[in-house]
C-alpha cells in the first residue's frame, strides 16, 4: 500500500480493510481475522486511554529509545522535531508523536510477527511495507463497530494450501473471538483481559493445532512452585525438595517450554532448601543459628514480594502497549533472587550441624570469595550472626557474665565452687568455637578480661567501677561489624586492649598492695624453701629427739610447741603476726618403719585472693621442702659427726688402737662433707637464688594475673628440676637418696664406736686409778684376766667397725661415681658443671 492510496481515502474502516487484505495477501480467512483484531483493538477502551496530550513527555520517551540505538539517531530526531514545530500544516503533533512512539515500542515484536506468519505453511511469506495511518479526532469506535457489523457477510474461505482442518481452525478462531453479541459486550464493557493482538492470535492457532499448554497456565503453576505449592503441571520430587514436570499433564509442553520451566524450577528447589533449613533448625539451634534463620527469612520475604509482583503482572495485562508476561520475563524477574539464593543455600549447607563460633567461621569463609554477590550476601549474613556474638562478648568484657544456654560462645563456664580454683578451672576457651577473624591472642585477652572482672567481684569482693568510663564508652561505640570488618577491627582491637589493661592492672594492684603478694612469696621462700637459715638450724636441733622416734609415737602438739620455741629464739620472732599465724607443722602419710624425719613437714597456709596463685602449688612446695629438708639434715648430721670426731680425738688420746679406725672414718666423712657442701651450694644458690631473681623480674613486669601465675609456676618447675624432683631426674634423685643413707649409716657406725670407746676409756681409767691407789699392791689375777678379755673384745669391735667403714667407703664411692656419671651425661649444663665440681681433681675416676 503506497502513500497516495492512503491519502485518497478518508474512510478509516476502508483503509483498515485494505491494510489487512494487503497483509493477508488476499487470503480471505486471514484477512477477516486480522480485521477483527484491528477493530477490537481500535474499539477497546485502552486505545483511547493510551493517547496522551503531553507532547514533551512523548518527545523525551522517543529520545530515550533512539539514544539506545545510537547518538546520530537521537540528533536526527531533534532536527526533524524542530522542523515539525515550525510548520503550520500539521494540526495534531501529539497524536503523530504518540503513533511514532507506539511504533518504536512495538518494533521488537514485528520480527516475531512476520517470522510467525512466514513459519505457517498456509501463509506465504510477505513483504513488510510502511504505511501512514491518519485517524481523526472524535469517537471512532461507533463507526468502526458499524463497519464491522456491516461486514458480517464475509465468509471464511479455507486456503487450498493450508494443512489445518476447518474444524480445528473454526475452534481456534472461536476460542479467540466471540460472536457479534459478545463483541458488543466487550466493546461496551471494560475487561481485565488484554486486547488480542496478531501475535497472540497466531500463537493460539499453533497451540490449538499442537494441543500445547499456554504460557499463562505454566506461569501460574511456576508461581505456585516458587512458593513450594504443587500445581497442575508441576509436582514435588519424591524424596527431594525440588519440583518436576508432571509426566501426564506436562506431556504437551514444547521442548522450549520444557527447557524454560526446568530452568525456572531451580528457583523452587532453592526456595524449598532454604525454607527446610529454617524449619529444621528453628527450635534446635541457638541464638546465632536463629540470627542466620532470621536473615534467610528476610531474604524469603523479599522473594515473596517479588513473586507477588509477578502474580500481579500476570493478572493485570490491560493496556495494549504493555508487554505480556512470558517465561523469559519470569527468568528476568527472579534472576537476582536466584543468584542470591544459590549463595544462601550454599552458606546454609556449610552451616548445617554447626553452631556458635563454628557457624560464624563457616560464613566468614565466603567473605573472601571473588564473586561480588557472594561477598554482599555473606557480609549481610555475617553481620546478622555476629550480633548475638557481639552481645555475649560485650557482656563478658564489661560485666564478666556469660549468658550462653546453647554453648555457642567461645568462652566456656564450668561448674566450679572452690574459690581458689575459679581462675584456673571455671573459664576456658573453646578453640572449636573461636571465630576465624578472632586470633588466639585476642581470645586469651577476652578470656583474661572476663576472668579478671569475675575475680574482682567474687573473690576480692571489689565492687568498684571497672573498667573506667572512657573504656566503656569506647567499647559501646563499636558494632558487630567491627569484629570482622578490616576497616573497623582496629577500633575493636584498641577497645579490647584498653579494657584488658584496665581490669588486669586493677587485679594486680589489689594483689600486690591489699593482699600482700610479695610478703607471702618471701614467707614461702624463708620457711618452706629453707631461706631463713638460723630458724631452720635451730628448729632442726630441737626436733632431733622427737623426729628420731617412730612416726606413730609423735604428736602434733609437741612439734607445734617446738616450732614456737624456735620462733621465739631466732629472727623469725620479728616476722609479721599474720605470717607467723599461717606457719604450722604437718604430718604426711606414713607407713610401718617410718620415723619422724620421713613424715615431718612445715606448711604455710595461704587463703583469700592470693590463694588463687599459691593454693594449687602447695603440694609442690611440700615436695621441695622434703628434698631440701633432707639435704639440710645431712648437713647437720655431718657437722655433728665432725664435732664428735674432734671430741673423740681429744678424749681418747690414750687409746692408741682407736686411731686407725678414726682415721678411716675421718677420711670418709671429709668426702661426704665435700659432696654435701657442693650439692647444698648448687641447690640453694644456683637453683633457688637464680630462679627467685628471675621470678621477681617477671612478676614486676606482669601485665595480668596469668603472668604472675605463669612466673610462679616457672619458678617452681625450675626449682623442681634443679633439686632433681622432675620426671627426668628420678634416677639421679634415687642415687642421691642412697648417698644420704650412707651418711646416716656412717653416723651409726661412729655412734657405736663412740659408745664402745667411751666404755673402754672409762674401764681403762678405772683400772689405772685402782693401780695407782695408795696402799694397794696392784691388780689381782682376776682383774688382769678381766682387763685382758675386755681389751680383746674391744680390739675385735674395732676390727669389725673398721671393716664395715671400709666396705661402706667402697660402696659409697661406687654410688658417687654412678651419680657423677649420670650428672655428666645429663642434658642440663648446670648438672654437668656440678659433676665437675664434685670431682674437680678427678678424685673419682669415672670410666
From TrEMBL:
One of its GO terms (biological process) is spindle assembly. Residues 219-514 form the Gamma tubulin complex component protein N-terminal domain. GO terms for molecular function: gamma-tubulin binding; microtubule minus-end binding. It is found in: Cytoplasm, Cytoskeleton. GO terms for cellular component: gamma-tubulin complex; microtubule; spindle pole. Pfam families: GCP_C_terminal, GCP_N_terminal. Keywords: Cytoplasm, Cytoskeleton, Microtubule. Signal peptide: none annotated. The keyword Amino-acid biosynthesis does not apply. Its main location: cytoplasm. InterPro entries: GCP, GCP_C, GCP_C_sf, GCP_N. Residues 517-844 form the Gamma tubulin complex component C-terminal domain. PANTHER family: GAMMA TUBULIN COMPLEX PROTEIN, GAMMA-TUBULIN COMPLEX COMPONENT 3. Belongs to the TUBGCP family. This is Gamma-tubulin complex component.
